Amino acid sequence: MDNLSMLTDLYEFSMANGYRQALENEEGVFDVFFRKVPDKGSFVICAGLQQVVQALQNFRFDQSDIDYLRSLKLFKENFLDYLSKFQFNCQVAAIPEGTPVFPREPLLTIRGPLLQTQLFETLVLNLLNHQSLIATKARRITYAAGNRPVMEFGARRAQGPSSATYGARAAVIGGCTSTSNVLAAKEFGIPSAGTMAHAWVEAFPDELTAFEKWAEVYPDNAALLVDTYDVLKSGVPNAIKVFKQLKASGHQPVGIRIDSGDITQLARGARQMLDDAGFSDVKITASNALDEHVVMSLLNEGAPLDNFGIGENLITSASSPVLSGVYKLAAVSDGQGNLIPKIKVSASREKLTLPGLKQVYRLYHKGTKKAFADVIALKDEKLSDPLDVVKANPLATKRDQLIRDFDAVALQEPVLDGKKLKADLPDVFTIQKHGKQMLSELPSATERLTNPDEFPVYVTHRLDQMQEKLLEKQGK
Question: Residue 242 sits in which domain range?
């Protein structure tokens, strides 16, 4: 990854310059969390941590950066000198990629010099918000598809090369099996997928010739696009002719793809024709502006589909294109190493932040791997059984709860200590496997695409009381 230190909103530089003058020795603690789940779901699949780690390890300013910042005539020379000699000196803890997380939970925490931690806000949010959004959308789509493979096809509709490439990575974390994006396939070890476009068929005198020539070049990868002219009258019959030729020469046909029209009816007709011709093992792939709702509708209608290729609605999360993750100050030091909790007060209690250095725990029914709630606690707290807790949503009614008979597993783990890596950064399919395991531990009703059950998130009484005391101090 290129150095992204200048991917920073100006006010972060302005504040950091001010800290250099007024609070040079202060330490800060910032949390990344979100309040709203895209597409009215119940959880988000966190992704992008590996790119955050790489960006922080590479964080530096070259001479052209310093010259540009000096040209703005906003910053003191001692601040510019600090940036020119920048050394990352923070600690990062995070919830592993692929984990389903819930509103208000700190999925990443950075602790270090206040000047430094302030500079990372935009960069960290850019990376985590985007990939977590796409991973969450991919989870919804692959959930709708059941056990059928979903190929990520969205590079040409993504909002720029970076979104296409890291979006493909996130899509695999969310459950996709492959990508059409060769750069993403190369960078992240993802299987590449895709055969022909309509242009191939149109480039030849007729459809049959186009299919035959493809089969000559790719006899073991004969997946044919059958909707250039007419799926059932020409596309599938011509594909069957070529498949017979391939089979006679000892090759196994792969499948057909339908990219337009009434996919349910066309797939039914194609399946019947293929089966009658002795090609019951040939796969049918559907594409064409699909999303989780279209996929679910097709399958509910009985469409005999084996695979899906999904592009723009996945790579842009078109139906809910923003994850509004935020980066909020939770504590500062008093210059002697003691942390002072901080809170953001708003006219709406819904936007209150949780103060202090924290940990997130997933609670399981004792002796099982069946999760039933999460608890946000202060970092130095020990969870006792039974445990008095308060609902994390400040707008909830009947907020107080008593929880008994549980096992608690901490979700955040150390990731960076300075530039020293403290955790593994696994490949995308290991992350995907972890995510599937964590999803299997949640109540199945939380996974529904429509009206999912809310997964309870609580805070400890001690954390709740700390928040209330800070509110009282502000006269709220």
Answer: 146-315
